[in-house]
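step 3/5: co-fold with protoporphyrin IX containing FE
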Amino acid sequence: MLISSANLADHTIHATDAPERTWAELRETGRIAWNPTGEATGFWVLTTYEQISDAYRRPAVFSSTGGMTLDSLTGDGARAATAAAGSMLVVSDPPRHTRIRRSVHESVGAHAITALRPRIAALADELVAETVDAGPFDFADVIASRLASATICALLGAPESDHSRLGRLADTAFGTSASEAHPAWHARAAANAEIFAYYGELVSARRRRPRGDATSRLVGTHRSGERLTDDEAVLNCHGLMLGGNETTRHAATAGVLMLADRPDVLRRLQDGGVADAVEEILRLAAPAAHVLRTVRRPLRFHGVDFEEGDRITLWNGSANRDTAVFERATDFDIDRANNRHLAFGLGAHYCVGAAVARMELNALFQSIATRVRLVSGGGAPTRLRSNVIRGYQEAVVELHGKGRR
Ligand code: HEM
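step 4/5: write tokens
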């Protein structure tokens, strides 16, 4: 059995380049490796684009109900995944997943995005305008975090006065909080409970008096005639809140770092390249570091005999660096043709918020393209200590406006 050279469950190694080296070694062998953890929770590691996309496409054999990240294998994480299984999208399997997915997709679909776009574009532009030529600042905190939490809260219809509190709660609940890496489980549990209580009230309010937001649409009757229960609506508000908060924030921060000291790329952005740049940022950043699946029945898969109950991990950032699919895979190349990255996953669970994330990132990088001549880096950024989200805890940069030299 091929053994992974680094313990990918160890949060601390994700604050370094070690995972990228391990992924590259494993891709080179072309084999699926075993990651022992010293406990009963060892897992298989999938690193090539082919292994990962095949696994994403087979929800009938690779179940999501056992949890979507390694965190769900132990303690309170396991209890939380069990409680939400079958009701929250990301921890559901077909046919329940298919039913709930239709409703959630309809709620955060095209018209939600059309309604939200001007507001998010204005906020992104305001945040960029405030920081241009204002000296070095932490982009992760000042722009990325505020924009991400405001977008997801506005989508769900939470009033503006609650956005920063909800953003902080979501950070703590997800366990990769920028201010405190891996807060204690009791803090996470308390934050989760507060988010559930908040959306519980919002769901009741929107049932009584619907508005034009995603929460109102979630609790309404859907085109299929489907109607989610209150519990399902609350669980999926929570799923949207956590799914959309840290991921998009870390893509934004990684993106600005990719632009640092690259005035040539900034010029390409100004020249209509924003959408392509966003895809390339998503490919290399791949903030959803891994997803977990549980094997439902014994099967042979890419040369390995999986047993029922085995856990497999799909490392999106590794698939996105696979040279079998992406030429010069580690280069930041916004002119890359056919950028079929897996940052949003694939298949049945393909990120339901992908269009929201793209809208938000396009708005942000459009403002940067319009207002900024040069992004300069302010020293080595600090990576997050997390095997769930790959990103930066702090990234000091300076935005130089077009008016100054
Ligand atoms: C750059 C930003 C984002 C990235 C990289 C990302 C990544 C992902 C990935 C990889 C999955 C698949 C999970 C799986 O297969 O188990 C997923 C699913 C999901 N995402 Fe995102 N996401 C992003 C933004 C968002 C946003 C903005 C929202 C909310 C508006 C959101 C809500 C969700 C939900 C609810 C699911 C579960 C879908 C399902 O199971 O059918 N995500 N996301």
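step 5/5: annotate
The domain at 11-401 is CATH 1.10.630.10 (Cytochrome p450).
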